[in-house]
Amino acid sequence: MWNIPNALSLIRLALAAGVGLCIEFGAFLAALLLFIIAAGTDFLDGWWARRFNQVTRLGRILDPFVDKVIITAALVALVAWPGSRIDAWMVTVILAREFLVTSIRSMIEGRGGDFSARWLGKWKMAVQCAAIIASIMLLSQRFSWSWLPATTRVLAWTAVLITVASGIDYVAQARRVGSSEPSDS
Description:
Elements: H1 4-24, H2 28-51, H3 57-79, H4 88-110, H5 119-140, H6 148-180
Helix pairs in contact: 1-2, 1-3, 2-3, 2-5, 3-4, 3-5, 4-6, 5-6
């Protein structure tokens, strides 16, 4: 149960708290660094678990949970900053999708089914991370590239759109898994 991938997930959880606090207090470069480390170790823990056959039930629950905390901590903190290009409604849509998918995942995995991440969900995470990184860079004012505000807005909108598409994909997957299960009667 306790192995390197799960330990990395717990470290990422602590990093998520650090990201949220750094953004809250305007320490944008520190937030950027912590976020990049947290997002980067998401790839590392999954790779390690598969490479060294250390996939655990705890890890299958912990990893997506920590992903959601990292994204949520950053997005909620960014909404408070004017000029972040992250709007409250965007965060609401993203959180609604996360609650929905988490509920579906727990229901299916609670019945012994496998509801692993899908490629669209992985792309969703990548685009959300890109939008967050761009937003933090924009707020830091150390990156005064003329294209950064528009790029940040496009990434934020793209993150919302792919998040909705991913949510629809997971609901469709859940319906397929649910219809293939034997009925209780």
